[in-house]
Amino acid sequence: MRVLIVYYSLTGKTKLVAEAIAQTLGGDIRQIEEVSKRPAAPLLYLTGGISAAMGLKSKIKPINFDISDYDAIYLGTPIWGRKQVPAINAFISSVNFRNRNVILFATMGGDNYTVAIKTMTNKIEADGGKVLESFAIKTGDVKDEVIIEKAKELASKYLH
């Protein structure tokens, strides 16, 4: 089974999870990058959270891969203001999920990710994809080693 892990990460926590999934499953990994650099904290949390809560899309660098080459796609996002980030909104809008199996994952400092998962699931399934599972990993004040182990545990749970 060919697996692709696609993610956006600003602080590096979602990247940690994506890399652990790729290591566990042997999949390919691709990072979604925004064209413009985001402002530093604390302005980042205000502008990023508002953009995410409004469901906005950011301009992302061109997608140089085809998800149709894969049997399953893990799609990862940080949670900002209970929602997925604008770069992930842009990615979801720019690719064709028809007949693709997707596992969604989120990283968060807080504890509410269900709105983001529901929103992404609705968009992917409206495009003909199927969301098989979803999971979230709390990363606020958590050591990287703990995040990595949790990601490996959850990754192996869904496709083996």
Count every beta strand, where a strand is a DSSP E run of 2 or more residues. 6
Give the overall average pLDDT: 91
What fraction, in percent, of the residue positions are helical?
25-40%
CATH architecture: 3-Layer(aba) Sandwich
**What kind of assembly state do the chains in view correspond to?**
single chain
DSSP helical segment count:
5
CATH topology grouping: Rossmann fold
Distance between the termini: 10 Å
Order of helices and strands: EHEHEEHEHEH
CATH superfamily: Flavodoxin domain
CATH top level is: Alpha Beta
Unreliable residue stretches: none
Provide the β-strand percentage band: 15-25%
Rg, nearest Å: 14 Å
The number of domains? 1
Structural class given helices, strands, pairing?
alpha/beta
Shape type: globular
Biggest sheet character:
6 strands, mixed
Write structural notes for this entry.
The protein is α/β, with parallel strands linked by helices. The chain has a single domain, classed as Flavodoxin domain (Rossmann fold, 3-Layer(aba) Sandwich), CATH 3.40.50.360. Helices cover 39% and strands 23% of the residues. It contains 5 helices and 6 strands. Strands 1, 2, 3, 4, 5 and 6 form a 6-stranded mixed beta sheet that branches. α4 links the parallel β5 and β6. The longest helix has 16 residues.
Descriptors:
160 residues, alpha/beta, Rossmann fold, 6-stranded mixed beta sheet, 5 helices, 39% helix
